[in-house]
């Protein structure tokens, strides 16, 4: 489960009393998620998500993350706004850890998106990039190419080979290629950087929520599209779904047209996106204790997608 720091009923009640949201009715731990402790909170005025930030989220980054939610929500993006306490603070400290109360948004995450749903996701992502244009703050991408190198170094060649013997040469080659070919002079934006299906809420074919912005940063807008493409456009067995990919691209371009330079860069950006998730998954695969509550994710899933992008090139984005 994803409640790593339990709070008693009295602690939860005192915490909710710090907000003008009515009295606490119930609080239930949320099993999804791997980084933070989360509760679904119901009060006499409505439902909210209470998040306690564990080791992976720095307190210094919270003004960026939470301010971004409020900025995007005010401009019409389907993101949850932050509930500020009675003193106007966006987060509070409890037992040495930061906590925030976030608006609850209805909707369901899907495992197997339809083309119509993918098109809606593309439109929502483009809207996020457009609406973030005047956000006054920036944050460096701490999961960019230098971090991928560090993660793979932390895995060691022997460790990668224990996952699959094909990984060490693949990783070495891709790091070299991406280091030489990674584009720099493309439009930048605040990006989500982790828009997997479990971070999107849908009501039918409408996006009702974009959530979990804790990798958000300032980087290439087209890279964010490539991350989303790699996360949404493949079936459970790894097969590419061209109809979903085409719909995702159409939805994005309808709301934010891509430049020719961005379209040309998408194949290399997608290879980078696949390698980024190979890196984190490989590191977690090798370093997560056997008795940990978190289920490890298979890095070979993204090794397969990387191989696809190397072979398909621009055809993946047609």
Protein described:
Helix content is 44%, strand content 15%. With 318 residues, the chain is an alpha+beta fold. The protein has 2 domains: 9-103, Phosphorylase Kinase, domain 1, CATH 3.30.200.20; 115-317, Aminoglycoside phosphotransferase (APH), C-terminal lobe (Aminoglycoside 3'-phosphotransferase, Chain: A, domain 2, Alpha-Beta Complex). The strands form 3 sheets. Strands 1, 2, 3, 4, 5 and 6 form a 6-stranded antiparallel beta sheet that branches. A two-stranded antiparallel sheet has the order 7-10. The longest helix has 28 residues, at 260-287. The chain is globular and about 55 Å long.
Structure, briefly:
The protein is of the alpha+beta class. The protein is 44% helix and 15% strand.
Observed structural traits:
318 residues, Phosphorylase Kinase, domain 1, Aminoglycoside 3'-phosphotransferase, Chain: A, domain 2, two-stranded antiparallel sheet, 10 strands
